[in-house]
Amino acid sequence: MSENFTLDSIILPDIKIFQPKNGFRFTTDSILLAGFVKDTTYKKVIEIGAGTGIISVLLAKFFKIEKIYAVEIQKESYELLCKTIEVNNLQEIIIPVNIDVKEFKPRENVDMIISNPPYRKGDTGYTSNSEQKKLARFTFSLTIEDIFKFSKSYLKTGGYLYLSFIADRLSDLFQYTRSYSIEPKRLKILYPEINKKGRLAFMEYRKGAGAEMTIEPPLFHKINGVETEQFLQHIDPQWWLNKRR
């Protein structure tokens, strides 16, 4: 693979992520999703669409997790994922898997599944010419129902599913819950400004849980053009260190 990539630090200087220079690069969405994860014990985890590893690495660094299967279909991203795992010395925890999740059959059920899935349907809006960007941000290879099907099969009863999704399509995140016995438990919405519509929804589900759900206070990125303390804490090293279990 040609060295057409960057190596960037996130949260702490010793947490490094390889990224393509011109392909899909992670945004704060991934950091916010990892930060949304409930502070509890997760022994085994699967990340669907791991990209180059930002969410898996944050989970491995700040939670006591025994094993994370980081599933990534795109070959170039998978190669950088492997480099990310190595540079962070997480080979004993994170297992990279280069496969379509619809074909992935883990030998054990897990405590948590997490995904920052495609934001737009493949037939709507602008589509990039880059195959990597298409696979990272559009439902050419993965649908929300695929995630629920997989989670029903491989999530332990009582296990957690975490998703982030564009707020305009929030209804998609409720469409399959009852049919796959995975109930929504928490919802937080990210707003770009105090007077703007919601941009991104973060959802927590539990397999086999009851029907009650908590709607958390809104998260505002900016107020009057200034980034909020509430938003900035999610990239503050001390906030993450306080989460460390």
TrEMBL record:
<dbReference type="InterPro" id="IPR029063">
    <property type="entry name" value="SAM-dependent_MTases_sf"/>
</dbReference>
<protein>
    <recommendedName>
        <fullName>TRM5/TYW2-like methyltransferase domain-containing protein</fullName>
    </recommendedName>
</protein>
<keyword id="KW-0808">Transferase</keyword>
<dbReference type="InterPro" id="IPR050210">
    <property type="entry name" value="tRNA_Adenine-N(6)_MTase"/>
</dbReference>
<dbReference type="InterPro" id="IPR056743">
    <property type="entry name" value="TRM5-TYW2-like_MTfase"/>
</dbReference>
<dbReference type="Pfam" id="PF02475">
    <property type="entry name" value="TRM5-TYW2_MTfase"/>
</dbReference>
<dbReference type="GO" id="GO:0008168">
    <property type="term" value="F:methyltransferase activity"/>
</dbReference>
<dbReference type="GO" id="GO:0003676">
    <property type="term" value="F:nucleic acid binding"/>
</dbReference>
<feature type="domain" description="TRM5/TYW2-like methyltransferase">
    <location>
        <begin position="43"/>
        <end position="120"/>
    </location>
</feature>
<dbReference type="InterPro" id="IPR002052">
    <property type="entry name" value="DNA_methylase_N6_adenine_CS"/>
</dbReference>
<dbReference type="GO" id="GO:0032259">
    <property type="term" value="P:methylation"/>
</dbReference>
<keyword id="KW-0949">S-adenosyl-L-methionine</keyword>
